[in-house]
Queue: 4 jobs
Job 1
Amino acid sequence: MTLSVREPAVAGAFYPGTAAHLDRQLDQLMPSDAAPHPLLACVAPHAGYVYSGRVAGQLFGHLELPRRVVVMGPNHTGLGAPVAVAPDDAWATPLGPVPLDRELGELLLARHPDASRDPGAHRREHSIEVQLPFLLRRRPDVTVLPVCLKHLGYAGCERLGESLAVIADELGEPLGIVASSDMTHYRPDAEARDLDHQAIVQMLARDPAGLYETVHREGITMCGVIPATVALVTARLMGATSAHLSSYATSGDVSGDLSAVVGYAGICLVA
């Protein structure tokens, strides 16, 4: 039987395109002395590794991953369905293929009427793909369910989060939730940090409605606010009791250009 495999869209651009080079960069980005704790849900950045890789590495380096992980990312291309479940058997990476969790996909399609199988939303999208090397490094036997999200109303975020929480409860084994998001885009560094702080406060309070309202009211250009909101709903229903910021940075920390930066935060929610 021929397997359906999605080829990388941004390997060699957002992150190294060869296994040797990617392994070396992950060694540099991920702490070797971190004491890991179990992942319930997290928010991780998805820019090129040169800019956001250290924030992502600090986050994933201190997480103990379950075998099964849902990875939700925003839809930057505008293609495909609003709640797009990847239909592939695996996604290729320079470190080897990552199997897709077809059972999780079927459960989500059955539980959530707004979800649909859709390869188009994923074909050129980078927000989920860039998370996979970190997940593979932390857990080589990981299986993932990629879900690409367009903009949803808060009620839609809540329904999807509730569906994921029901699935997690039915599985009988741990399920991890990863929401892919960068923070403020192309504002002066000080302004970006102030805006991002407002959004981070809501995430640390584990308040999905507060995050959604704050981002929209303040015009915060957090591209993954929808995945992050869904993740907060799911985590709350899965029993999250606390959240912490693993690290924060802006692109200006790397480039030295503080006139128009992008912000990156690593947020971890634990039971």
Note: The longest strand covers residues 261-270.
Job 2
Amino acid sequence: MTKKITPQIAPLTANIVSIFRVVLVFVTIWFFTLTEIFAVIAFFLTIVVIYMDSLDGYLARKLNVASDFGALLDIAGDRIVENTFWIFFAAHGDISFWIPIIIVTRGFLVDMVRSLAFSEGKTPFGKKTMMRSKLTRFLVSSPFSRSSYAVAKVLSFSWLGGLIAINKGISAGYWNLSHSLLIIFFIVGQVLAYSALIFCLIRGIPVLWDGKEFVLGKRYPKQFNKED
């Protein structure tokens, strides 16, 4: 007989996954700063951390416990995970420091708009989404958009993390790669990082556009108090 999850425990299942992946990302970054063996482990943990982004949402839908709080917790977890990776790789010298600056700025602006929308009963995704058109809903919340951005991130973070593991292995004398091959690896990492940045902006700009009513409505309520 299948064991049923009680209503009190069910919502926690998805939320615990969201919280655990935040803890795991800090462990992953710490491992990247240790020896080459730990860096290899961190490479695989990076994939796990990104995969868990879809796992918490899947559990919420599977257990039928999706909630407004869970959606916000998921987004907060995403922000912490993404920003931690981008800032670390920039600090490590693997990418330009402008990439995390742009992504963090985009995140603050998008989250500000979403907070205003949430105060009026709108959520980032789902039936009560703040997105107002089919196009913006597709760009921001469609499975294709979200999965494509997730793939861009996992490729970027995994590739950049893999380069750290490779360089640590070379320094330790475990293997040897030609300088030209390392340059190619570096260029591919840059292409992946900037591709993820473009995806990030493509998914962020529609939120700012559709959310203008919530921002301007606070200052000019008479002009922005009508539903489309």
Note: The CA atoms of residues 68 and 123 lie 7 Å apart.
Job 3
Amino acid sequence: MKSDLHIHTLYSDGVFSPEKIVDTAIDVGLQVIALTDHDNVLSYPVAKEYLKQTGREDKLEIIRGIEVNTLYKNYEVHILGYFMDVENSDFQSMLKAQQQARVKQTKEIISLLSKKEGIKIKFEDIKKQVAEGGSIGRPHIAKAITNAGGTNSVIDAYAKYIHDDSPVYVQRKTVTPQDAVEVIYDAGGIPVIAHPHDIDIADKLIKELMQYGLRGIEAYHRKHSPACVEYFSSMAEELGLIVTGGSDFHCPNIMNGQIILGKNFVPEWVYDKLIEEKKRIDLA
């Protein structure tokens, strides 16, 4: 099955609605997608309902997913989850805490921008950039700064204000990767470490997270070179973990006009292994 297991929508920092993702996925020949917005699972029912309404349920399978933003020793570690029971109380509590942390961080940054830089932004200017109930984050703050005339571009906003050394930046108080993995696993889901190449302590951390229920490594990712894919695939095999992958789609590539959804080569067996793993967890 042709799959893309890492996709973002307007419910976090993606630019497409769930409906547009469904249309695009079918257009590019995908058979399976996972919607993995940051710290919420709201896009899944929207996409499923749209697929049903348009009578194309035979064209595309949609997996409920999530990408949980975590912090560990000043490293930002992203944990993907698939097939969780989203009614699980601990899972619900984690999402609520994550959303509250996002709002608190954003309001504190808005206050510091006003006091220290004279840049006036309203919380609503940031909130309206995402779908109702979605996850606000750094890209939305950067865009609001630019829209308010604080910088000439979003890239400038990041360079000047959205980093730990900036006098107006506040780090988000978020869950640990250990907590995220454990909560996803206990909710019947498959926890996977996302784009591990971004973390230079990945080797050690992956082994530690296995003690909390980590079941996979995202070896296929648009940032991963062929050598990197091989490295993490071999590690997964050695540790008895599954391999996943996806485009980590947020928006079309503006430079060449391409939609990169599904462009990251993910072998068809990846989906089969994911389903096998879900069956194994359900039987455990």
Note: The first strand starts at residue 3 and ends at 7.
Job 4
Amino acid sequence: MEQDTFLVPVPPQQLRELAGWDVVPAHLTYRIGRGPHLFRAGNTAPVRGGVMAVDSRGFDGLGEPEAFCQEAVRECIARGFSGALLDFEGLTPGLARVAARLDESFARRGWTLYVPEPYGSRTVKAQVLISSALSGGSLALRLEEAAERFGLERVTLALEKAAEDFYLPSPTGGGVPLEPEELERRMEELRPCVFFSAELCARYFTYMGRDNGAHFVLFDDGDTLRRKIEVARQAGVHSFSVAWVHVRDHGEQMGLRRTVPAGRRGRGPG
């Protein structure tokens, strides 16, 4: 049986809380800035192991990627990282060149690069992050289509605990995101009948607004995240990414493995 890999983006102040889980930390301490060059957040202690997570805030799109890629490789060697997660917003030519260059450099070293879906076609070996949050269709079909586009071995399911409120009918297929507190408040007020969609692997309910008609609320919980993992495994996908907050709240329900029993504390990664 192929073993699952769970990549967990985690901020430095919560890294020690990740101790005891059999997961790969993605350290949220790096960004690509002007130059482009690699920058590390100030006042953060050096870490070891896992992968670096790089966001694109502050990148102006100018310059060639070579210097940045060399800096990223040196940082990975120095910190014992086995790859990088590119947390890039939007697809731009400058960031696409960075992703392609890192993809080539990391592949030569046997490291893993994770990229957002728009960058999947700009890379050859990188793991492509496919969001688990859907408002239509089916998760199984979504993964099948991703495997056809990128290759099954490159698909990573990005688990998202989403909640959205849709007006009915919803011609755009987009809803209003709900924070957990707002979802809880609506469920307490409405006391709705909640159903499960096997195609979306999500829960849903409907209600009538006082002034704006019918609504459809689609949301996740620990059980739906577990079911999405099961659908992915059935499709042959064994690579996942999931935010630390979801591991903290639902890790055992999702079936994530512990390296030490719950309740025991050890030294954090790095």
Note: Confidence is low (pLDDT under 50) at residues 265-270.
